[in-house]
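Quick start: read one record
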Amino acid sequence: MRSFRVEIPQADLDDLNRRLAATRWPDELPGVGWDRGVPLAYLKDLAEYWRTSYDWRAAERRLNQYPQFVTEIDGANVHFIHVRSPEPHATPLILTHGWPGSVAEFLDVIGPLTDPAAHGGDPADAFHVVIPSIPGYGFSGPTGQIGWDVPRVARAWAELMNRLGYDRYIAQGGDWGKVISLQLGLADPEHVAGVHINMLVTFPPGDPATLNLDADELTRLEHGGRFQQDGLGWQKIQSTRPQTLAYGLTDSPVGQLAWIAEKFKEWTDSENAPEDAVDRDALLTNVSIYWFTATAGSSAQLYYESSHGDAAFVQTWGGPWPLAMPVGVAVFPKDATRPIRRFAEQALPTITHWTEFDRGGHFAALEQPGLLVGDVRAFARSLRPAPVNA
């Protein structure tokens, strides 16, 4: 392992600003809003803010507050943040992002997780935190190999935790982080004490008309149908033609910006713009990581490897996962998917913890860091041995 610092050359920042200033803008039909994609006026404003007001160097300084490392696992570079708690008996916890996320999603939760006493919490709830960048994403960079699917990433995480000397740990994640964490439980059952996830996808077992769905379940199932019909365009492209997509997103910062900002609008607890749910600078830090590392295409390869074809898509996202350890589920109401618990329990029979929140969406650590931290703590407490009466 070697130490790592985020240090983007000034020439790359200058190139970004030049490209933003020289953007060739498309036309737009009147009055369509967000219905057909990111509105022109909104994106022009966001791109100009990125060019003239956003401070990448401030984002670098914040990232570099935390110890970061790079190691090679199975032929790929793996970048990760590793923050040990001041509490010696803290529980190791590996947090995994998804797409279009990054390690920067978790910056607001590192302090409360690693040092709860300093944030008004109980020292017994402390964690040693490991936050890796998925191979192909961000500071891990392209893998340079085919075959990096979800199970392979999970095996790499097991090896990473082994190298760090963690014999018993909890896995947590949303989006790709959800399925990677579940697969990690399958790959390393002797060492994974529990898996906590957000953004759970559930598929109905059999004909929905025969399942006697209640009103809430029916609403969630209908949302899933609309999402499958209208919300999976990005998934179809990234899982079938990631290389073709990569040219536009790697060459045009506004293209990369629109590709990600759209998902921050659609998948968050926002009404009119992504900034209703996520700080504008936090959004741009996430976009900038994809841009400066040129990982738009390599990050999309995970879709090809793990979701190529309808059967693979359902199996990757819907399980089943016959895990031996307990599973906790956090449900945020404005997420891209709305799970149905009785369907979930068929795919994940070891669910022991289920929380329905009244706010928040897909990027839980950015949108509702306090709620996510509280739920991870509660799940971890449930894994502790019951006290023995004297």
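Residues 215-230 form the longest helix (16 residues).
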